Amino acid sequence: QFLYFIGRMNNHCDNGAWVAGDWIPADKCADRFLCRGKPCAKLSAVRPPRDGVYDVAIIGAGCVGATVARELAKTQASVLWLDGADDVSQGATKGNSGIVHAGFDDKPGSRRAQFCPTGCRMFPQLDEELHFGFQRNGSLVVAKGPEDEKMLEKLLEQGKTNGVRNLRIIGQEELRRMEPHISADCTAALFAGDAGTIVPYEFCIAVAENAVANGVDLRLRHCVTGLRRDGDALEVTAVHVPATAAGGSSWMRPDVLARLALLAGLAAAVPAVTNVAGWLGAALAAVALLVGAWAAQALTRGKARGSGKPFAFSPSKGTTIAGAGTTVTFRARHVVNCAGCKSDEIARMAGDESFEVNPRYGDYVLLHKKEGNQVSATIFPCPGPLGKGVLVQCTLWGNLILGPTARDTKKKDPATGKLVANDATLKEAPESVMRYIFTKCRELVPGFNAREVIHTFCGARAKTTRGDWIIEQCATEPRLIHAAGIDSPGLAGSPAIALEVVRLLREAGAAVIDEPNPRFNPLRAPVVMPKTGMKDIEGNRLRMGPAGTVTDPRQNVVCKCEKVTEAEVIEACHRGIDITSTQAIRKRTRAGMGHCQGEKCNYDCESRVAAIIARETNRHDGLVGRRPWPASSLLPQRWITDDHKAAVDALSR
C-alpha cells in the first residue's frame, strides 16, 4: 500500500504517462503511449448521406454523444453529429470531477447501476486505443464512526449486486497507510480498486477525434431548434452561427478582403462597359468580375451577413455562442438525443413531455500541483440525499481538486407543481459556495493549503424529474432515441450507454448499423508529448524566450507553466475538429491551465497560442476566440493576487 501511495505522485506526461490504468515510464512511452510504429487513424472522407438522408443524426457533443458517434463509426451508417457549441465537451463534460466511478453507489435495478460498472471496465481498453490518459487510482468512501460503517456495509452489498469488482472494506490502520493525510477521525473506508480518474474533456476530445477520423460528419455551432417527422425520416432544423470573435480591425480581416476583391472586379469591368479596352479588355474584365464575386463569397462564407438573424446559445454557465445565425435543415432516418441539460427541449420538439431537466450546479476549487500529494485515491464522505458528497481528489495532471457542490437551479412551485427558478442557488454568493466546499473537504483531508488556489469552475448536471437516466426509444416518435438526463456517473457509464443506444437503434429499424465498417481504425495518437525535465522524451530540448525567437516548433515553449510546445499546438489544430479559440487548445494541450492561468505579464501564452491558431487555420488573429473574463466561476478574476489568496484562505478556516 505504501508503493500504491508513492505511485500516485506520478503526474501524467511528466517522466512518463498513464495508459490503460497503469503508469508507463518515459523509456516505454514510445510504444505504449505515442503509438510509434502503429497505424493510427488518419482523417478519412465523411460518409455522405444516401439520397440526402443521413442514417443517424446525433444531437449533443458531450461524452455520451462522442461515444455514440464512435460506436456508429464502426458501422456503414452515415452519421451527422450536431452541437450548438464551438467545440465538443462544452457542456457538463467539461465541468465535472473526471472520476470513472466503480458503480457501487447506484441503486440496484436503475439505469445507472446497469451501465456504470460496465462502462468503468471499458476504460482501460479505450485508453489503450485513444490515449487520453486513464489512471486506476481507486476510490475511498470514508466512515467516521459506527453509523457510517453501517453505510459502508450497505454500499459493499449494493456494489456486489451491481456487479462491481475489487470492492472491500478496510480498517483505520490500512486506510492511514494508503492515505497519510486523511483526517484522524476516519475509522474505516470502502475501497473500490477499479475506480479511476481521467480528464473528462480530454476523453471526449479523443473519442470525438477518432469518430471524425472514421467518417462521422461533425457540425459544431449548429444549435438544434426543430425536429419533425418528414415521411420516413426526421427533419432536423438548426441555427448555424459561424465562428467569429471580437477584434480583427485590420484591413486583413476576411470580410474586408472580400469587399476589396469585389470592388477590384467591378473596377476591372469599367473598361469593358465603356469599350475603352476593346474585346480583350471586356473578356479580362468579365473574368476579374467573376473572380471578385467568387472571392467575396468564399471569404465571407458562413458569416451570414445580411441574411442572418441575431442568435445566442449557452452550452454552459459563462459560455455563450452568439452572432448572426442561418437556419439550415437536415434529414435523418433516426435521431439520438444526447443533448444533456437541453435534452428535455429536444424531447418536447418530438411531442415528448415525460421529463424535465433541473440543472444541478457542481462547483469546484482547483489548487496548485504542489498540493496534489495530499491524496492518492479519490476520497468521498459517506453519501447523502443529494449524491456522493464533496470529495478530495488529485487530478490526472497533479492538481488537487475540491468539490463539487450540488445546487439545484430550479425548485418545485408548491402552488403549481412546476419547476421554477431557484433564487437560493442562482443568487448565492461565491464566498458562501467556497466556504461550504472548504468546510466539507477539511473534514476529509484537513491539511491542504487553500492559498494555493489557481482556478474555480462550475458544471451543470442534467438531473431530471424522472430520477434516473433516460435511455429509451421516444414514446411519441419511434425514430428518436433518448440518451437523456445523463448526470453523474455518466462519464463512467458513457461507453456502455453508447452500446445500448446502438442496440435501441437496431430495434428501431436502423439495419445499416449491422453492416461493419471494414476501414474503421480504433487507434488515436496523443497530442501531448511526455517531458522529462526540460526535454521531451524524444530528446528535443525545450526552450523559452520572447515570441518568435525559438524557431523549432518542437523546442518552442508557448506555455511556461505546463511546458506546452508550438508543435503540440500545431498538432491539435489538425485533428479534424475545427479549432477556433484558445480555449479549444487549452483543453487539448493544457496551454494556459498552469498556476499562472495564462497571465499576460508572465509569459502571455494565450497570445502566443492565438497566433499559432490563426496561422494554422488560415484565419485572422482577431477571429480567434479568447477565454472570457474572468473565466473563473467563484474568484473575482482569473489572475488572482496575494490579497485574493488571503481572502480564500480565510474562507477555508
- How many H/I helices? 17
Record field, number of beta strands: 28
Structural category is alpha+beta
Poorly predicted segments: 1-8, 246-277, 286-306
Structural features, described:
The protein is of the alpha+beta class and 653 residues long. It has 17 helices and 28 strands. The strands form eight sheets. Strands 3, 4, 10, 11, 12, 13, 14, 23 and 24 form a nine-stranded mixed β-sheet that branches. Strands 15, 17, 18, 19 and 22 form a five-stranded antiparallel β-sheet that branches. Helix 4 crosses helix 13 (490-507) and helix 8 (254-274) runs antiparallel to helix 9. It is globular and about 65 Å long. It starts with a helix and ends with a helix. Residues 1-8, 246-277 and 286-306 have low confidence and may be disordered.
Provide a short characterization of the protein structure.
The protein has 653 residues and is of the alpha+beta class.
Topology:
Blueprint (H helix, E strand, L loop, with lengths): L1 H6 L8 E4 L2 E4 L3 H4 L21 E6 L3 H11 L5 E4 L16 E2 L10 H20 L8 E5 L2 H17 L4 E5 H7 L9 E5 L3 E2 L2 H14 L3 E3 L2 E9 L2 E8 L13 H21 L3 H23 L8 E8 L2 E19 L5 H7 L7 E11 L10 E3 L10 E4 L5 E4 L3 E2 L1 E3 L6 E3 L1 H4 L3 H13 L10 E12 L5 E4 L6 E5 L5 H18 L23 E2 L2 E2 L20 E3 L4 E2 H7 L9 H8 L15 H13 L24 H10 L2
Parallel strand pairs: 3-4, 3-14, 4-10, 6-16, 14-24
Antiparallel strand pairs: 1-2, 5-9, 6-8, 7-8, 11-12, 12-14, 13-14, 15-18, 15-19, 15-22, 17-18, 20-21, 23-24, 25-26, 27-28
Helix pairs in contact: 3-7, 3-13, 4-13, 8-9
